[in-house]
Design goal:
With 271 residues, this protein is of the alpha/beta class. It is 49% helix and 12% strand. The protein has twelve helices and seven strands. The chain has a four-stranded parallel β-sheet with strand order 3-2-1-4, sandwiched between helices. Strands 5-6-7 form a three-stranded mixed β-sheet, with helices on one face.
């Protein structure tokens, strides 16, 4: 199916809904959903961002700016997944408990505010990855327009660019809890130091990256093609010092390079 046809189907889907609340993180997927929903429904679409320690303040700021650029009404709510030991103990299905908290928060608000549908930014490619949070959302009646129409991640970026969204190539920025190996307890302090580490590296000019955390060790992941440049042209001693100031003891560079969902490879190894 051509991309123009998929856009028409997405627009028609929202027109049928008449009113929709978008679970809006500010990532490229949910922002595209917010854009199309607003174009179809105007102020009968509402973007809602859930705030918790796993979302950096800078990400919230980006989400607010993007929503204002689109024109869609935007609200902020608090979620409390960090109060749930099923989440903080970081089991392999951690995302299930995160999305359960999110949609248990959004669904009653949507009904109270007169929105019969809660929609998210899950795309067609997400259905082929290990995403236990998708099940939690489905159980609570959430819809995923991009996945329903078969829009892939690459098509999300293409559509975003075609619609004039300046953040169409924004790097993926999943929940900070994804930086920890399964089984390692997640705390607010750990989330903050990982987040601050990533912001530090972005300010140095490295945009597409991850700082994985394992105990007192920070593992920096960069695209493989950028590793040599990083080693040769970065003040490594300054990077180590900055990360130690954040609370890490050891700072390493992953020679395999950045790969989305890397920590899920342990699930394949244990099958």
């Amino acid at each position: 199916m051509k991309l123009t046809e998929k856009l028409k189907q997405l627009t028609a889907l929202f027109a049928e809904m008449d009113r929709a609340l978008i679970a809006y993180s500010g990532g490229v997927d949910s922002t595209l959903v917010a854009k199309i929903a607003y174009d179809a429904l105007s102020d009968r679409a509402l973007a809602v961002t859930a705030v918790s320690p796993s979302l950096l303040p800078e990400e919230l700021e980006d989400a607010s700016v993007q929503a204002a650029t689109i024109g869609i009404p935007h609200k902020i709510v608090q979620t409390h997944e960090m109060d749930n030991p099923n989440y903080t103990s970081n089991p392999v299905n951690r995302c299930y408990f995160c999305k359960s908290e999110l949609h248990d928060t959004l669904k009653p608000l949507a009904l109270e505010w007169g929105y019969p549908y809660v929609v998210d930014g899950v795309n067609a490619d997400d259905l082929h990855d290990y995403r236990p949070g998708i099940q939690a959302a489905k159980e609570r009646g959430a819809r995923s327009p991009l996945a329903e129409i078969g829009v892939t991640k690459a098509e999300v970026r293409q559509l975003s660019q075609q619609l004039g969204l300046p953040w169409w190539d924004k790097p993926a920025q999943p929940c900070l809890s994804s930086r920890f190996p399964y089984g390692e307890e997640i705390t607010v302090a750990k989330l903050q130091r990982v987040g601050r580490g990533e912001i530090y590296l972005r300010k140095l000019g490295w945009q597409n990256l991850r700082v994985r955390s394992q105990g007192d060790t920070a593992k920096i992941e960069l695209p493989p093609a950028q590793i040599k440049d990083f080693v040769l042209n970065t003040d490594l001693a300054a990077v180590v010092s900055a990360f130690q100031d954040l609370g890490f003891i050891y700072v390493t560079l992953d020679l395999e390079g950045y790969r989305s969902g890397k920590l899920n490879q342990v699930l394949q190894l244990t099958k």
